[in-house]
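Ticket #4471: structure export looks truncated?
Reporter: QA, pipeline team
Priority: medium

Steps to reproduce: submit the single chain below to the structure queue and open the exported record.
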Amino acid sequence: MSLVFEPSQTTHWKNLHPSKSMLLGSHNLNDGEELVAKIQAVSVEAIKDKNGKDEEVAILRFYNAPPMVLNITNSRAIACLYGDLYENWIDKSIQLFATEVRSFGATVTALRVREAIPKTDEDTSQLEASLNACESVDALKKEWSKVPMHLKPGLAAIKDAVKGRLS
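Actual output as written to the record:
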């Protein structure tokens, strides 16, 4: 598996048709690649269905990739990572991979969300400084509540050290 942070240029046939390449799909990944995408927005938007009619669908917009139609399976996977309230998904990263699924009587390749928070090597130095600057346990609690859930495991030792110093 190779992690990428921008969709790959592929020679998949869907890239020959602009209407098919406007949305993120499995065709944006080469074999063995997985995309780490940071969520910018979640909304319901109208897109054209296979018959050319408008259809309201959930859409994920990313900072580093084209928008993606959000189906129930992927919605549940993201909810498992970041909670049921989709406004809490903003600025969180997800890891996408392509896999074969049965859909409408055929086997097709689809994007799926890994049910694990991806390691993104985000810079946590500002959060570390905020925790270390706390002068009371109450201030530490307040700063800790601001730390995104996916970064807490990496900052827990600092929080515990500051708590020990303050106690």
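Status: closed, not a bug. The export was complete when the record was re-opened. Leaving a note from the reviewer for reference: The chain has a mean pLDDT of 85.
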